[in-house]
Specification:
3-stranded mixed beta sheet; 7 helices; mainly alpha; single chain; two-stranded antiparallel ribbon
Protein backbone atom coordinates (compact mmCIF):
# COMPACT_ATOMS: atom_id res chain seq x y z
CA UNK A 1 0.00 0.00 0.00
CA UNK A 2 1.40 3.40 -1.03
CA UNK A 3 0.32 6.79 0.31
CA UNK A 4 0.02 10.18 -1.35
CA UNK A 5 -1.08 13.49 0.12
CA UNK A 6 -4.01 15.42 -1.26
CA UNK A 7 -3.78 19.05 -2.40
CA UNK A 8 -6.64 20.42 -0.33
CA UNK A 9 -4.36 21.95 2.30
CA UNK A 10 -4.56 19.06 4.72
CA UNK A 11 -1.86 16.54 5.41
CA UNK A 12 -4.22 13.63 5.34
CA UNK A 13 -2.72 10.83 3.29
CA UNK A 14 -4.65 9.20 0.47
CA UNK A 15 -4.09 5.46 0.32
CA UNK A 16 -3.49 3.91 -3.08
CA UNK A 17 -3.42 0.16 -3.36
CA UNK A 18 -0.65 -1.76 -5.07
CA UNK A 19 -3.19 -2.90 -7.66
CA UNK A 20 -4.05 0.72 -8.48
CA UNK A 21 -0.36 1.57 -8.84
CA UNK A 22 0.15 -1.43 -11.10
CA UNK A 23 -2.76 -0.26 -13.25
CA UNK A 24 -1.30 3.24 -13.55
CA UNK A 25 2.12 1.87 -14.48
CA UNK A 26 0.56 -0.35 -17.13
CA UNK A 27 -1.17 2.65 -18.73
CA UNK A 28 1.97 4.77 -19.13
CA UNK A 29 3.66 2.94 -22.03
CA UNK A 30 0.37 2.59 -23.91
CA UNK A 31 -0.47 6.28 -23.56
CA UNK A 32 3.08 7.19 -24.57
CA UNK A 33 2.70 5.03 -27.66
CA UNK A 34 -0.54 6.74 -28.62
CA UNK A 35 1.10 10.12 -28.18
CA UNK A 36 3.96 9.10 -30.50
CA UNK A 37 1.44 7.79 -32.99
CA UNK A 38 -0.34 11.15 -33.09
CA UNK A 39 2.88 13.12 -33.41
CA UNK A 40 4.12 10.93 -36.26
CA UNK A 41 0.75 11.05 -38.02
CA UNK A 42 0.91 14.84 -38.20
CA UNK A 43 3.85 14.55 -40.60
CA UNK A 44 2.29 12.03 -42.96
CA UNK A 45 1.45 13.05 -46.55
CA UNK A 46 -2.31 13.30 -46.13
CA UNK A 47 -4.32 13.39 -49.39
CA UNK A 48 -1.16 13.87 -51.47
CA UNK A 49 -1.64 10.91 -53.85
CA UNK A 50 -5.33 11.17 -54.66
CA UNK A 51 -6.26 9.74 -58.04
CA UNK A 52 -2.85 8.28 -58.79
CA UNK A 53 -2.38 4.70 -60.02
CA UNK A 54 -2.39 2.08 -57.28
CA UNK A 55 1.12 0.81 -56.63
CA UNK A 56 1.93 -2.65 -55.26
CA UNK A 57 2.17 -1.56 -51.62
CA UNK A 58 -1.13 0.30 -51.77
CA UNK A 59 -2.82 -2.74 -53.29
CA UNK A 60 -1.28 -4.98 -50.62
CA UNK A 61 -2.54 -2.73 -47.82
CA UNK A 62 -5.98 -2.61 -49.40
CA UNK A 63 -6.01 -6.40 -49.74
CA UNK A 64 -5.04 -6.86 -46.10
CA UNK A 65 -7.73 -4.41 -44.98
CA UNK A 66 -10.42 -6.13 -47.04
CA UNK A 67 -9.47 -9.59 -45.82
CA UNK A 68 -9.35 -8.49 -42.20
CA UNK A 69 -12.67 -6.73 -42.47
CA UNK A 70 -14.34 -9.83 -43.89
CA UNK A 71 -14.53 -8.95 -47.61
CA UNK A 72 -12.12 -11.43 -49.24
CA UNK A 73 -13.93 -11.27 -52.60
CA UNK A 74 -13.77 -7.47 -52.91
CA UNK A 75 -11.07 -5.77 -54.96
CA UNK A 76 -9.60 -2.25 -54.80
CA UNK A 77 -10.51 0.08 -57.63
CA UNK A 78 -8.82 3.40 -58.35
CA UNK A 79 -10.90 6.55 -58.45
CA UNK A 80 -9.40 9.14 -60.78
CA UNK A 81 -10.92 12.43 -59.67
CA UNK A 82 -13.16 14.17 -57.14
CA UNK A 83 -16.24 13.61 -59.26
CA UNK A 84 -15.77 9.85 -59.02
CA UNK A 85 -14.99 10.25 -55.31
CA UNK A 86 -18.26 12.12 -54.78
CA UNK A 87 -20.22 9.37 -56.55
CA UNK A 88 -18.50 6.71 -54.44
CA UNK A 89 -19.18 8.61 -51.22
CA UNK A 90 -22.87 8.77 -52.09
CA UNK A 91 -23.08 4.96 -52.40
CA UNK A 92 -22.08 4.58 -48.75
CA UNK A 93 -25.62 5.52 -47.76
CA UNK A 94 -26.91 2.73 -49.98
CA UNK A 95 -24.42 -0.03 -49.16
CA UNK A 96 -23.10 0.46 -45.60
CA UNK A 97 -22.03 -3.17 -45.01
CA UNK A 98 -18.41 -2.28 -44.37
CA UNK A 99 -19.44 0.33 -41.80
CA UNK A 100 -21.31 -2.33 -39.88
CA UNK A 101 -18.24 -4.58 -39.97
CA UNK A 102 -16.03 -1.72 -38.75
CA UNK A 103 -18.38 -0.78 -35.94
CA UNK A 104 -18.36 -4.37 -34.74
CA UNK A 105 -14.56 -4.30 -34.69
CA UNK A 106 -14.59 -0.91 -32.97
CA UNK A 107 -16.85 -2.19 -30.19
CA UNK A 108 -14.55 -5.15 -29.63
CA UNK A 109 -11.44 -2.98 -29.52
CA UNK A 110 -13.05 -0.59 -27.07
CA UNK A 111 -13.86 -3.43 -24.70
CA UNK A 112 -10.30 -4.75 -24.98
CA UNK A 113 -8.80 -1.28 -24.48
CA UNK A 114 -10.86 -0.74 -21.35
CA UNK A 115 -9.36 -3.89 -19.89
CA UNK A 116 -5.97 -2.15 -20.10
CA UNK A 117 -6.79 1.54 -19.68
CA UNK A 118 -9.25 3.41 -17.52
CA UNK A 119 -12.16 5.04 -19.33
CA UNK A 120 -10.76 8.49 -18.54
CA UNK A 121 -7.32 7.59 -19.88
CA UNK A 122 -8.79 6.18 -23.09
CA UNK A 123 -10.95 9.26 -23.63
CA UNK A 124 -8.01 11.60 -23.07
CA UNK A 125 -5.83 9.62 -25.49
CA UNK A 126 -8.42 9.62 -28.25
CA UNK A 127 -9.14 13.32 -27.76
CA UNK A 128 -5.43 14.08 -27.93
CA UNK A 129 -5.07 12.31 -31.28
CA UNK A 130 -8.06 14.18 -32.73
CA UNK A 131 -6.72 17.50 -31.49
CA UNK A 132 -3.27 16.86 -32.95
CA UNK A 133 -4.55 15.82 -36.38
CA UNK A 134 -7.60 18.03 -36.91
CA UNK A 135 -5.77 21.10 -38.19
CA UNK A 136 -3.21 19.07 -40.17
CA UNK A 137 -5.86 17.03 -41.99
CA UNK A 138 -7.87 20.11 -42.93
CA UNK A 139 -4.76 21.94 -44.09
CA UNK A 140 -3.79 19.02 -46.32
CA UNK A 141 -7.30 18.89 -47.72
CA UNK A 142 -7.25 22.60 -48.46
CA UNK A 143 -4.05 22.11 -50.47
CA UNK A 144 -5.58 19.20 -52.35
CA UNK A 145 -8.75 21.20 -53.02
CA UNK A 146 -6.73 24.09 -54.42
CA UNK A 147 -4.75 21.74 -56.65
CA UNK A 148 -7.88 20.00 -57.96
CA UNK A 149 -9.98 23.20 -57.96
CA UNK A 150 -12.61 21.58 -55.77
CA UNK A 151 -15.02 23.68 -53.71
CA UNK A 152 -17.51 21.05 -52.55
CA UNK A 153 -17.43 21.73 -48.80
CA UNK A 154 -19.66 18.77 -47.98
CA UNK A 155 -17.35 16.37 -49.81
CA UNK A 156 -14.22 17.91 -48.26
CA UNK A 157 -15.75 17.62 -44.82
CA UNK A 158 -16.56 13.98 -45.53
CA UNK A 159 -12.92 13.36 -46.46
CA UNK A 160 -11.67 15.08 -43.31
CA UNK A 161 -14.10 13.15 -41.15
CA UNK A 162 -13.06 9.86 -42.74
CA UNK A 163 -9.37 10.59 -42.12
CA UNK A 164 -9.89 11.48 -38.47
CA UNK A 165 -12.14 8.45 -38.01
CA UNK A 166 -9.40 6.22 -39.42
CA UNK A 167 -6.80 7.80 -37.12
CA UNK A 168 -9.11 7.26 -34.16
CA UNK A 169 -9.51 3.60 -35.12
CA UNK A 170 -5.76 3.09 -35.45
CA UNK A 171 -5.14 4.74 -32.07
CA UNK A 172 -7.85 2.56 -30.55
CA UNK A 173 -6.13 -0.53 -31.92
CA UNK A 174 -2.91 0.62 -30.24
CA UNK A 175 -4.80 1.12 -26.99
CA UNK A 176 -6.07 -2.45 -27.17
CA UNK A 177 -2.62 -3.77 -28.12
CA UNK A 178 -4.05 -5.21 -31.34
CA UNK A 179 -1.69 -6.76 -33.92
CA UNK A 180 -0.05 -4.57 -36.56
CA UNK A 181 -2.18 -6.11 -39.32
CA UNK A 182 -5.47 -5.17 -37.66
CA UNK A 183 -7.88 -3.78 -40.30
CA UNK A 184 -7.94 -0.37 -38.60
CA UNK A 185 -4.16 -0.14 -38.84
CA UNK A 186 -4.30 -1.09 -42.52
CA UNK A 187 -6.99 1.44 -43.30
CA UNK A 188 -5.03 4.16 -41.55
CA UNK A 189 -1.93 3.15 -43.52
CA UNK A 190 -3.81 3.87 -46.75
CA UNK A 191 -4.56 7.39 -45.52
CA UNK A 192 -0.93 7.71 -44.43
CA UNK A 193 0.12 6.99 -48.03
CA UNK A 194 -1.88 9.97 -49.20
CA UNK A 195 -5.01 8.09 -50.33
CA UNK A 196 -8.67 8.19 -49.34
CA UNK A 197 -10.22 4.71 -49.02
CA UNK A 198 -13.80 5.85 -49.39
CA UNK A 199 -15.48 2.54 -48.77
CA UNK A 200 -16.76 -0.75 -50.13
CA UNK A 201 -19.66 -0.94 -52.54
CA UNK A 202 -20.59 -4.44 -53.55
CA UNK A 203 -17.29 -6.14 -54.34
CA UNK A 204 -15.35 -2.93 -54.94
CA UNK A 205 -13.19 -0.92 -52.57
CA UNK A 206 -13.33 2.61 -53.92
CA UNK A 207 -9.86 4.05 -53.38
CA UNK A 208 -9.16 7.67 -54.32
Amino acid sequence: MSRFFDDSGSNAPIAISDAELDALEAEIPILAGIRRFGEEAVNMPWFSRLGRPLDAETRALARSWLDGLGFPDAEPARLRDWSEAADAAMTLDIDPAHWEAEESLRAGLTSEALEILSEDALTIAMTHVSALLGERVRSALAEAADFWEVDDEELLNAAAGAALHAAHGAALSLSADAPSDHPFRRKFALFARGRWPIGIAGLTLNLF
